[in-house]
Specification:
This protein is of the alpha+beta class. The chain contains 18 helices and 13 strands. Strands 1-2-3-11-8-4 form a 6-stranded mixed beta sheet, with helices on both faces. The protein has a 3-stranded antiparallel beta sheet with strand order 5-13-12. The radius of gyration is 21 Å and the shape is globular. The protein starts with 15 loop residues before the first strand and ends with a strand. The N terminus is likely disordered. Protoporphyrin IX containing FE (HEM) binds next to helix 14 and helix 18. It holds the Pfam family p450.
């Protein structure tokens, strides 16, 4: 039981288990119940880590931008053992993760795991390479590649859209951005899958070593033979004599790979599913394609990729409404729960593609607001709109209750999305 006290003396509830298999099947009911319990609720993850869940929109937005909450994982890692409710599970966790981490340090010296001033410096340097012009220039290539994939699907009666469409588009776009040659992509994909699984197995450690060696060599090749890609630009960028070191370049490439495709895959998967389950919205879009940008914003709110959590820890006690979270505790901010807060969105469990979307938190908020949001929106719009235009009779091949969801502490996404193309 955490040693928190409430300023108004209201009792802090017992930690509840979150991220169970039942939760992944339907997180929104569980998150709504927790929102009604308290503004910050202590919860325990399946591997035994104690953390505080934030599920209200206002609180989420405030805490995302609160400098008392840190993302510096070099410090945060040392707090992990302190935040185990069950000593047995802590021992198992430490035995499995060895040095408290399944990733070598070089993969986490990036901006998402750092605070100012490091974050400010990294984001400024990367912002010089990751420009709006570069994203806009990708549009015709993304359209062409999507249409090729749709041609491939057209011959089949039944397909898994995660494998055939939702995964390949964002992954290939990231490979274009990083300048990963086509022949290397299947190996790159294998390491990437292992690394994002988050498991502390020897196989994952081997994948991280291979990934680092590969990225180091790729960076070297961009230095000697610069090409028209973001990694070549990142090697060159400098700001008043400052440049990214090789370790920072490796870490940045890794961040772009993970942040850039894991999330967008699930925007495409969850957004497509939402439309398959809401024929009226589908008809609205068919008659008025100008609604697509708003529809994508609504998919992000209704069942966004980062529904489950973004992570931080407190560097001093932080009051959240009536609850005081002590210093040195983990805080998980559920962006999906924030998007369904009835205090912010009327009838929040209803998909409404005509809703207005100011100040959404689906891409975070504050200094860590998603760097790739314009690219993700572009990919989401192109892929989902072209899919439904090409296959007007597209429908789910199984009952919604048979769909299997991934068990991730951060992401909400489908294992498979089986559909009948109607051909
Ligand atoms: C940060 C969501 C796609 C690159 C974030 C954060 C969120 C997010 C919530 C902030 C996390 C936090 O504060 O803890 C999403 C969603 C996406 C998406 C929902 C797709 C629908 C992308 C893409 C890229 C990207 C396509 C790049 C190619 C980044 C980077 C950061 C970030 C570099 C770190 C920014 C910083 O720390 O300053 N994203 N993202 N994301 N995202 Fe995305």
């Amino acid at each position: 039981m955490p040693s928190a006290q409430s300023p108004s003396q209201s009792p802090v509830p017992q930690p509840v288990e979150l991220f169970t298999p039942a939760f992944h099947q339907d997180p929104h009911g569980a998150l709504a119940a927790l929102r009604q319990t308290a503004p910050a609720v202590p919860v325990v993850t399946p591997n035994g880590l104690r953390t505080w869940l934030i599920s209200g929109y206002e609180q989420a937005r405030e805490l995302l931008a609160d400098p008392r909450l840190s993302k510096d994982m070099r410090v945060g890692r040392d707090l992990i053992p302190r935040n185990f409710a069950d000593p047995e599970k802590q021992r198992a966790f430490l035995a499995e993760s060895g040095d408290h981490s399944q990733f070598p340090q070089v993969l986490s010296v990036h901006m998402l795991d750092s605070d100012p001033p490091d974050h400010t410096r990294l984001r400024r340097l990367v912002g010089r390479a990751f420009t709006a012009r570069r994203v806009e220039a990708l549009q015709p290539r993304i359209i062409e590649f999507t249409d090729e994939l749709l041609d491939g699907i057209a011959g089949s009666e039944r397909v898994d859209l995660m494998e055939a469409l939702a995964f390949p588009v964002p992954f290939t776009v990231i490979c274009w951005l990083l300048g990963v040659p086509p022949d290397d992509r299947s190996e790159f994909r294998r390491w990437s899958n292992l690394l994002v699984s988050g498991a502390g197995t020897p196989e994952v450690r081997d994948a991280s070593v291979s990934m680092i060696a590969y990225l180091r060599a790729l960076i070297e090749s961009k230095r000697t033979e610069p090409a028209d890609d973001i990694l070549s630009d990142l090697v060159q960028v400098s700001d008043e004599g400052d440049q990214l070191s090789d370790d920072e370049l490796i870490s940045m490439a890794f961040l772009l790979l993970v942040a850039g495709h894991e999330t967008t895959v699930n925007l495409i998967g969850n957004g497509t599913l939402a439309l398959l389950q809401h024929p009226a919205a589908r008809e609205q879009l068919a008659t008025d394609p100008a609604l697509w940008p708003a529809a994508v914003e609504e998919f992000l709110r209704y069942d966004g990729p980062v529904t489950n959590a973004t992570w931080r820890f407190t560097t001093e006690p932080v009051e959240v409404g009536s609850v005081l979270i002590p210093e040195g505790e983990f805080v998980t901010i559920s962006l999906g729960a924030a998007g369904r807060d009835p205090a912010r969105y009327s009838d929040p469990d209803r998909l409404d593609i005509t809703r207005s979307h100011s100040a959404s938190v689906a891409f975070g908020h504050g200094i860590h607001h998603c760097l790739g949001a314009p690219l993700a929106r572009l990919e989401g719009q192109i892929v989902i709109s072209r899919l439904f235009a090409r296959f007007p009779a597209l429908r789910l091949a199984v009952d919604s209750t048979e769909l299997r969801w991934r068990s991730s502490l951060m992401m909400r996404g489908l294992e498979e999305l089986p559909v009948l193309t109607g051909r």
